[in-house]
């Protein structure tokens, strides 16, 4: 795929000050108590997942799951959160949604990026 997906992400490891390369990320549609898988990928050398699916998303409730514990363990480090799950709403199916994750072993923060 050459076009940027309608949902993208970028992970920065604040502990090292470097992009978090090699983190597994999954995108789900949330409906009621159910979750439907939309896409999965792995962050690139710059900590980004940019072109992991090419279909448009419907308006609705979505979740990004980051396998942060597995990633830290692969580096020989402990992590308090085995997984980070971020839920967000898509209101405009034509819009781009960038969801960055600022991460360290003991916590995280996020925001809607551009």
Q: How would you describe this structure to a colleague?
A:
It contains 1 helix and 9 strands; from the N terminus they run ββββββαβββ. It is mainly beta and 114 residues long. The strands form 2 sheets. Strands 1, 2, 5, 8 and 9 form a 5-stranded mixed beta sheet that branches. A 4-stranded antiparallel beta sheet has the order 4-3-6-7, with no helix packed on it. The chain is globular, with a radius of gyration of 14 Å.
What are the SSEs and their pairings?
Layout: E1 7-13, E2 18-19, E3 24-31, E4 34-42, E5 48-49, E6 60-66, H1 68-74, E7 84-90, E8 97-104, E9 107-110
Parallel strand pairs: 1-8
Antiparallel strand pairs: 1-2, 1-5, 3-4, 3-6, 6-7, 8-9
Question: What is the radius of gyration computed over CA atoms, rounded to a whole number of angstroms?
Answer: 14 Å
Share of helical residues:
under 10%
By secondary-structure content and strand pairing, the structural class works out as mainly beta
The count of β-strands is 9
| Beta-strand fraction estimate | over 45%
Order of helices and strands: EEEEEEHEEE
pLDDT under 50 segments (min length 5)? none
Largest sheet: 5 strands, mixed
Euclidean distance between termini CA atoms: 20 Å
> How would you describe the shape?
globular
Query: How many DSSP helices?
Result: 1
Mean pLDDT across the residues is: 94
For this entry, give a set of tags.
globular, 114 residues, mainly beta
Short structural summary:
This protein has one helix and nine strands; from the N terminus they run ββββββαβββ. The chain is mainly beta.
């Amino acid at each position: 795929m050459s076009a940027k997906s309608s949902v993208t992400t970028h992970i920065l490891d604040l502990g090292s000050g470097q992009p978090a390369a090699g983190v597994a990320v999954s995108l789900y549609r949330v409906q009621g108590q159910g979750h439907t898988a939309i896409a999965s990928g792995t962050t690139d050398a710059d900590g980004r997942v940019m072109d992991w699916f090419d279909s448009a998303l419907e308006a609705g409730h979505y979740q990004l799951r980051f396998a942060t514990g597995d990633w830290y363990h692969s580096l020989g480090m402990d992590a308090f959160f085995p997984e980070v799950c971020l839920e967000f709403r898509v209101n405009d199916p034509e819009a781009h949604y960038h969801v960055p994750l600022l991460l360290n072993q003991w916590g995280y923060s996020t925001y809607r990026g551009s």
